[in-house]
Design a protein that fits this description.
By secondary structure, this protein is mainly beta. The chain has one helix and 21 strands. The longest helix is centred in the N-terminal third of the chain and has 21 residues. It is globular, with a radius of gyration of 28 Å.
């Protein structure tokens, strides 16, 4: 009997211990368990996420959540949450022009990691990786693909910086302050593509108030594959080559600073020039490969019309930003609508120019408003006339974008914004083969776009 009692007691002790192990334990101190049922299983997913993050070097994490609602008076297709990157608005009378769109998307949300590493030869080293979820707009709502936006490393000395990786194109410094994040790329503000490059930036001090910022870099217009965007009849025969690009900017501090793009940074008075030179190859039917030069040059200005009182506050500040450029064979950055025109056996660079201007105004620290006019124009319409080898129907004579938007910061994290855009494209058609005249009434397409957006910055 005594042995049976001992066995029973042992079994009970094991059972009690097992039950104790299966009983849910209290969550770790500091975790928010309001979101049942399993915050103790995955703390930081639905609960509090202020958990230390460590890395080999100093690591910062940031980004934002962005929800867009967009109404388009015409059908932009599966990427309709953004205006067309080509600038081609559906032509009046077409099926797409008779259809409207009403779209919700969160694909423009972003996430970034920034690293500060060890010094090298007196330079600070740092790197940035940023991604969004716009990799494949044909994917289902729950299956967006991660897309690399920025990925670069840099060595920063006191007046000199060496950057390598992928970041903003050196050509066209202005980014239009639109909420749709197309930033006017196809309408005279082509600094939208982020391209692989290596660039050297040097600050040359002139006096206490003035300095020159010199930028020189080598960049690839298209990272992997052929540079065939908007290449008309040569789209399958274009090979990309690296381009040389640069900037020369005068920076003056005497006028103070005012808000720039999205009100995220303060910028001083800046004026100067930018340019690009390179070459692309076209495979002609009977003449083999023929190089066609890519080139562009322009003028940029940022003017603090109403300066910040302390260099940080946005209250009662106003900024003007604008640029003008001329370019050839630069459809890879949307600076021109096409790469080539002319005969297939004798392709020439498609030329065009762009104009962009905007005002950014903050009546209070939290309330901001922007308005702008953008235009991209083909340089010589006669270059697109039809011939027996090459017909460019419906080439884009010019594209226009008029926008106005407002934004309000509810707190340091949450921003709401609204925007209206009027987009317009005029097309030109070549008439009978061999004719040197142009039909100036080939048609146009227009779109009215309304947008609401909610941000959470972190």
């Amino acid at each position: 009997m005594r042995k049976i009692t001992i066995v029973v007691v042992a079994i009970l002790l094991v059972a009690i211990r097992t039950m104790a192990q299966e009983t849910p334990q209290p969550a770790a101190p500091g975790y928010n368990c309001d979101f049942a049922p399993s915050c103790e299983v995955s703390p930081g997913v639905y609960g509090k996420i202020s958990v230390p993050v460590t890395s080999k070097f100093n690591l910062s994490i940031g980004g934002f959540v962005k929800l867009d609602y967009a109404y388009n008076s015409v059908n932009f297709g599966q990427s309709g949450s953004l205006s067309p990157g080509s600038g081609a608005i559906p032509k009046a009378g077409s099926t797409a022009a008779e259809q409207s769109q009403s779209i919700f998307t969160a694909r423009q949300s972003r996430f970034w990691l920034k690293v500060e590493g060890p010094k090298f030869l007196g330079a600070k080293t740092n790197a940035l990786i940023e991604a969004d979820f716009y990799g494949d707009t044909s994917s289902a709502a729950e299956s967006p693909q991660l897309r690399m936006r920025h990925a670069w490393g840099a060595l920063d000395w006191a007046n000199t910086s060496l950057l390598f990786g992928q970041t903003w194109d050196i050509f066209g410094p202005m980014a239009s302050n639109t909420i749709d994040f197309r930033q006017g790329a196809a309408y005279g503000s082509p600094n939208n593509p982020r391209v692989p490059q290596i660039r050297l930036t040097h600050k040359l001090g002139l006096n206490a108030e003035n300095s020159l910022r010199l930028v020189l870099g080598v960049q690839d217009p298209n990272q992997n594959g052929n540079n065939n965007a908007a290449a008309a009849a040569f789209s399958s025969n274009v090979g990309s080559m690296v381009n040389l690009a640069g900037q020369v900017m005068l920076v003056n501090k005497s006028l103070g600073v005012s808000p720039g793009y999205f009100g995220m940074s303060m910028s001083p008075f800046t004026v100067g020039f930018f340019g690009l030179y390179g070459s692309q190859k076209a495979l002609t039917p009977s003449a083999g490969e023929k190089p066609v030069d890519s080139w562009g040059g322009g003028f940029y200005a940022f003017i603090p019309i109403m300066r910040s009182k302390d260099g940080m506050s946005r209250k009662m500040t106003m900024s003007f930003e604008g640029q003008a450029y001329m370019a050839a064979n630069m459809a890879f950055s949307s600076a021109t609508a096409f790469n080539f025109c002319g005969l297939k056996d004798n392709p020439t660079a498609a030329k065009g120019y762009g104009l962009a201007a905007q005002i950014i105004f903050y009546p209070t620290q939290d309330l901001g408003a922007s308005a702008g006019y953008l235009r991209r124009n083909a340089y010589n319409y006669a270059d697109y006339r039809a011939n027996v080898d090459h017909t460019t129907d419906n080439f884009q004579k010019y594209n226009q974008n008029v926008f106005v938007n407002i934004s309000y910061d509810l707190n340091a994290a949450v921003r709401i914004a609204a925007e209206y855009e009027y987009l317009n494209t005029h097309y030109g058609n070549s008439v009978a083969s061999g004719s040197s005249t142009m039909n100036s009434t080939a048609g146009s397409g227009s779109a009215n776009v309304a947008r609401l957006a909610v941000f959470y910055f972190f």
